[in-house]
Structure formats: C-alpha cells, structure tokens
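Practice record 12: protein with pyridoxal-5'-phosphate.
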Amino acid sequence: MSKSISDTASSITETFIQRTTESGAWDARAKRSMPGGDTRAASYYTPHPAYMARGEGCFLYDRDENAYIDFLNNYTSLIHGHAHPATVSAIQEQAVRGTVLGSAAEATVEHAEMLCARVPSFESVRYCNSGTEATLLAMRAARAYTGKDLIVKMDGGYHGSHDYVQVNIQSQTAEDGLPRRTLSSRGVPEAVLEGMLVAPFNDLDALQDLLRANSGKVAGIILEPALGAGGVEPEAGYLAGVRQLADSHDALLIFDEIMTFRQDLGGFQAAAGVTPDLTSIAKFIGGGLPLAAFGGRGEIMAPFDPTHPQTIPHNGTFNGNNITMAAGLATMKEFGAEQVVRINELGQRLRNGLNSAFQSAGVRVRAVGSGSIIRLHWHDGTARTASDAAAAQEKAQELPKLLHLEMMNRGIFSAPRCQFAISTPMSENEVDAAVDAMAQSLDTVRPYVESHVPHLAHG
Ligand SMILES: Cc1ncc(COP(=O)(O)O)c(C=O)c1O
C-alpha cells in the first residue's frame, strides 16, 4: 500500500521535473543568492517553481516552452490576463515620458474619481504600493479617528505582512469560544498582541462578547468579507451583523477587499449591500503593476490632507507613480459591468464543472468561493470558520500539493493551494479545459486518495 503512495507522488513530481528542466536549473542558481531561491513564499512550491518566460492573454509559457492556462493570475491581480493591448499602450506611452515624475499625476485623479464613483464606501481615497500598506494605513486611520487603539481581526484572516496583522493568520483552536491569540511569525514583537483582538469568522455572538469585554477600547474591526483562507463565505446576515456591532461599540468597520474587489464593480460590499467605514483594495487596480488604495468616509480620511492641522503623514516614494497609475487607469477602463458578469459566470461554470469532476471521481473535495475566485474545500461539508477549513486541509495531507503539480503537468496553472481566478480573455473553452484536467488529475491521484486520505474517498 505504501508503495502506491510513494509511486503516485514521485511519478507526479518526476514528470514535473522532466518537463521543467530549465526551471530546475534556474532554481538551483537562485538558491545560491536567495534563501530557498525564493522571494515570495505564496508562489513557491516544491520541487521547484516553474520559471515563466512570457504571458499572452490567459496563457503562460515557461522556460521549457510548456504552455499553461493561467488561473493564478498573480493571485487575482490580473483581471485581463497578460499584456492586454490597452494596458501595454498606456505603459509604453508613459514609459517614454518618464515612469515617475515625482509630482501629482492626472491619471491618479482620474483613477481616484473612478474608484469613488464605483465603491460605496469611498468618498475619498489615497494610494500606496501594496495591499500590506493599504491595510496598515486603514487601521491607522481607524485608530486616529476613534482615538482608540485596539483592532479586531478574524482568525485565519490575511491582511499582508506588516507586524500588526501577523496574528492568527494560521487559525487557532478556540479557548472559551475565542481563538487563542497567537503571533504568526517569528520576529514580530509580542507587544503586537496587546494591540490586536481575534474573533472567529461567521460568529456574531463571539464578536459581541469580545467587543463587550473590551468596551470603549476598540478602534476598528478589519475583515475580508469572504475569508481567503479556505474560501469561507459569509453566512447570510453576517456582514450586516458585524456592521451593527461595530456601530453599537463606536468602532469603525474596515473591509479588506484586496482580493474580493473583483467580485463586483463596487467590490464585495456593493454585492452584499453592506458599506464599511474604510476599505483597502489592491491587486488588479494597477493593471499588473504594484498599486493599492485605501479610502472611506471623507471625515475619516480628512487628516491625510497634508494641510490638515492634525495631519497623519502619509508618504511613499512611489505613491501614485505615473506609469502604474497609467496602467491601472487603462485596465480599470476596460473592466465594466459586462466584464464583471462574464467572469463571474465563468467562475460559476468552473465551480460547477470541478464539483462534477469530484463527484464522478468519488472524491470528497468541493469547489467553493464566489464570483471569479474559485477555491477548494478539502472535504464535502461546509466550513463556517477558517479553523474548519484549515483542519480539513491538514487532514488532506499532500493531496492539495499533488493536485496542483499534476494540474501543472496537464497545462493548468493555479495557486499552490489550488485557488483559481478567472481573467477576461478566458472563455468556456479554457474553463472546460481546466475541468477536464482536474478529472484526469483525480484519476492520477486516486491511489494516493485511497491509501493515504481514505476519508476523502466516497465509500
Ligand atoms: C486579503 C488580502 N489582504 C492583504 C494582502 C496583502 O497584499 P500585498 O501582497 O499586496 O501586500 C493580500 C495579498 O494577497 C490579500 O489577499
């Protein structure tokens, strides 16, 4: 039995290594100058990541000329796939006039006008270069506005890599109804825990208890409207309930829509009909260049005005740089209501197709998520919280990794945790190709499922 386990895993890995020898050579070279040969943990995977040489529309080609349909889309940040003509022209036109002129830029104003027109919570916005900065600054704005220090985040919630949000990224088991507050990385000061509280997602009672126990001290509640970790969707009424609890405790509600913004023209908040006080967005708004924004009610954002008597200084050498804003504006102009509907429909087609493939293969895995983002639950029940999703993933052992690698062997590129994002150049053909590849991959991993994770095999 154990022979078939190692046979399955090693034959998938061996096929990948054989197909990607150039990438393997680059990985060996990279390891000499970078720890692990890597500079971004989320896109690293063993035996080595494929080195992509170029992207065209929804296709990627690696150094060995293997073609992939790109369902990673740089973790949802490429709404039009690669090298969309409008974005390329905007970049080219700006490049010859200078990439960053160190001054205010018209494209920034137009981009901000578009965001304020689209996103219900945006009366006023500011730009930065990463989602990490956008959540850091939204949290700072909440503290400044309320004059209070504590921020509540969700167990399993991800808000980037600044110190204050390195708490319970990996979900923790509950003690007395609340997840144990835990630092998620070495090197983060213990003092961070004094500034953060942690609630389980989809649990209004626990949030209420936490807010009552810290009455008068909570500046804000930050959450992804749908948890990225494990693809946990909000239950009916949950987001509205959080809104009410925030109001009744004089805390600001901050939505981290860095990933979910693509779900509707005005973000998840527009679709859910719940308007937060502050919102952070990033990913595709820069047209494939690094860009993020945070914004909200005018009175909360007002102190970011450099002439405000109690200004909150907000700097960044590349904030609102010309080339990124030009690329972002061109990209946003090509993303309207019609495109949102189309990619969300393709997302649903992929979820349905994958679920049929899992069912036909007798594997208890479920495609979940919403709109154009598709995630896998490593069981066929429902995950209410991040800890449900994490427990299921842990029990699935190597299956996510093997499926990811086998899908790559079959020309489908996704996040190593098997997250898929649709881009506008895709059609039903690419979605159906991913479903076929999954059906075949499930066939390949069957011996592993049966012998190693039999709880995921239908009896
Ligand atoms: C929900 C969420 N918040 C914050 C971030 C951090 O953004 P960045 O990687 O641009 O710093 C991410 C990145 O994936 C994210 O998904």
